[in-house]
Amino acid sequence: MASERILAMQAKAWPFEEARKLVERYKDAPPSKGYVLFETGYGPSGLPHIGTFGEVVRTTMVRQAFRRLSDLPTRLFAFSDDMDGLRKVPENVPNREMLREHLGKPLTTVPDPFGKFESFGHHNNAMLRGFLDGFGFEYEFQSASEWYRSGRFDEALLEVLRKYDEIMAVMLPSLREERQQSYSPFLPLSPSTGRVLQVPILAHDVAAGTITFTDEDGKTIEQPVTGGRAKLQWKPDWAMRWHALGVDYEMAGKDLIPSVQLAGKICRILGGPPPEGFNYELFLDEKGEKISKSKGNGLSVEEWLTYAPPESLSLFMFQKPRTAKRLYFDAIPRAVDDYLAFLEKFPQENAALRLENPVWHIHDGKPPAAGSPLGFNILLNLAGVCNSEEKAVLWGFISRYAPGATPESQPLLDRLVGHAIAYYRDFVKPKKRYRPANEMEKQALAELLAELEKLPADADDETIQYQFYEVGKRHPFADLRAWFKALYEVLLGQEQGPRWGTFAKLYGLGEMKTLIRRALEGEDLAAA
Hints:
The chain is mainly α. It has helices spanning 2-10, 14-25, 50-69, 96-100, 120-134, 144-150, 154-162, 164-171, 177-180, 234-245, 257-270, 301-307, 310-318, 332-345, 351-356, 358-362, 376-386, 391-401, 411-428, 439-453, 461-473, 480-492, 500-507, 509-520; strands spanning 36-42, 74-80, 140-143, 186-188, 203-205, 210-214, 220-224, 230-232, 252-253, 279-280, 283-284, 325-326.
């Protein structure tokens, strides 16, 4: 344990760099609350999306790293801002006309358009918990509505009221002149309509703990800021929560850097230090646009898990968090194969290198011993050349390539077979475009077939691969890359593909030769 802590203090992986900030934060004394608090925030105005998962998994990785550096207890709050008013109707939900009637009301009082839960906020909170639970995260769900209405935020809200003028001095310079005229950190809930009101505060009374405003019916109302009868604008709300809960670590997207800075100033005004954290880059969809909960663009967690194991998604989140990444279906195959490569390297690495390996962070230092003898891309190509969507067909080839391998003895491989079939069916098969070989390519293919005919049936991968290389060198292709590209286009109907020696061994040397013969004879390789 002591040796691991020494190595962890020197580790360069970004979760350890972040965790060391918390070690420094409490180097002189432990937190008075008795634990170090990590937090992730969630705005449930739309269905949960993959960016929310990314924030939780990354925060969890920092928490795991911190546990290797310190004996202080930790907690992780997944906090839902479900007291917010519904600002607009999401595009990807049913009963949108019904939702329009409830614009402005707290999400936990808006009816569920799906008709399954107490409110739209409860529905989206359940969605959040569902996919976080599916990944086995250790977290505690927290609802803003419950904290406000139960009175647990009351003392912090009264402190905001006491520091009203100081907070206004921080916020007003950040606002447009027009907005400055009506801004207040407090948003009262209308006693007549239940909506969260964006109205000027006419007066505030620190001694009484009240604010005065004009309600939607035109009446002047004096109302307490406590007991869920008011909430805060989101930046002061963020700061108040940090202060009230004693949040020690929270990360945020790069687009929120100015908001983090403002909230930090307000948190200090309220009497506490803002949390540690870093700003990650945003995810982009296939068009290079920012992923949005309301638009529903980009990938969902459920979609990723249809085509790949969860570990690959965790790897995608781990890698280069400060770099904007295109989060779309074409990111999946590489993420899967990268995960398998890191998993294969782990047992051979020394203790220091293991702390840098992503699988250490994905599996909290205890990655599974068994990986997969075959990668995702080669399984995709096998599905394509077999033109089959049946797992049993692919397993027939796999068991010949790896004698003794079965779905039971290779559970990860079996999952990959299912994912590869689904991915092939939905994304590869519709784009396949076979082309006939030109005369030069036909000559090279004929020579390749002749060389493969000389090999024994049990020739290994490297022997087969050698023939592919040598034949390509003997023909006037621009380079070997052009030769392999031609093979992919003619034999597989795509521009990229597998390492030919490994693929031919998996598919079968006899089957490989038959495929080349069919291409030379001009058959339609897209047909079964």
